[in-house]
Amino acid sequence: MTRFVLLFSLAVLLTLAPAALAWGDLGHRMVGDLAARQLTPAARAEVARLLAGEPEPTLGGVANWADDLRNTDPERFKATSRWHYINAKGGGCAFDVARDCPDGNCVVAAIEAQRKILADRSQPQAARRDALKFIVHLVGDVHQPMHAGNRTDAGGNKFQVSLRTDIPPEAYARNNYVDGVMGTNLHSVWDYYILASRGLSAKRYAKLLAAQPAPATGGNTPLDWAETSCQLIDQRQLYPAEHKMDRGYLDAMRPLAEQRVREAGLHLAQLLNQTLDPGAK
C-alpha cells in the first residue's frame, strides 16, 4: 500500500468518527466573546441572569454546549443535529426554507425558533437559557461556509484531504495523523485547522479580532447569513484543486475565516440586543 493510499484510507475512516463541529471550540468561543463585547447594558444583564449557574456563565463559555450534547445528552443531540446546517437541494445559493428546511430542521429555521423562545419571557427560564445557548452556537455555525452549501458532499465532510501540518489533531482524530500528515476532510480544515494554525488562545485571538475595524453588517437575517456563506464557497474558491494541502491553504483562507467569525460576533450581538433589550433598535 502506498503512503498516499494509506493516508487516504485513514481519511475515509474519519467519516465514521464524530462529524466535524463548526469552528471547533476556538471559533465558537471567539464568536461568543466578540458578541459579549457588543451587547447593550440591558441585554448584557439579561444574558447574565439567564446564564447564572452555568459552569462558565458567559457567551463564550456556553458557545459549544450545542455540540457538547453529543456526549452529555446523545438523544437531544440526535434530535437537534440537523439544526447546525442548511443545504440548497436545488443548487445555487437561493435557499428555499420550505424545500431545504423540512420540519424546521435546519440552521436558519432553528435560529428563528430559538429566538422566539428567548424573546418570550413567559417561557420557563430553563427553556430560555437553552434557547440562548443554542442561538450562540448556531449563529456561529451559519457563518461557517461549509455549513451552508449546495454540494452533495455533506458540507465538505466527504471531500477527503491529506494536510501536512504540525498542529496536533483533535483527540478523536489522532490515529489519522501519520508522519506530520493529517488524513482529514475539508470540513474539518475549516472547523479546526485554519483558526488553530494562528497559534493563539481564544481570549487572545478574540481580543485581536475585536481591535480590527467593525465588519460590514450585510444582511440582517439568518437566511441572509446562510446565503452569504454559500456564495463564498465558489467566490473565494474554498475547494482546493488538489486533495493534498499544506499551511499555504490555511494561511490563504485565514483572513476569510476570521472575517466570518467577526461577522458572526456582530450579528449575534445585534440579534441578542434586539431580542433582550426592549430599547434596542
TrEMBL record:
Superkingdom of origin organism: Bacteria
GO BP term (any one): DNA catabolic process
Key word Metal-binding present: yes
MF terms in GO: endonuclease activity; hydrolase activity, acting on ester bonds; metal ion binding; nucleic acid binding
Record keywords, A-Z: Disulfide bond, Endonuclease, Glycoprotein, Hydrolase, Metal-binding, Nuclease, Signal
Record bears the keyword GTP-binding: no
InterPro entries in the cross-refs: PLipase_C/P1_nuclease_dom_sf, S1/P1nuclease
Annotated signal sequence range: 1-22
SUPFAM superfamilies: Phospholipase C/P1 nuclease
PANTHER family attached to this UniProt entry: ENDONUCLEASE 4
Protein name per Swiss-Prot or TrEMBL: S1/P1 nuclease
Species whose genome carries this gene: Pseudoxanthomonas helianthi
Higher taxonomy: Bacteria, Pseudomonadati, Pseudomonadota, Gammaproteobacteria, Lysobacterales
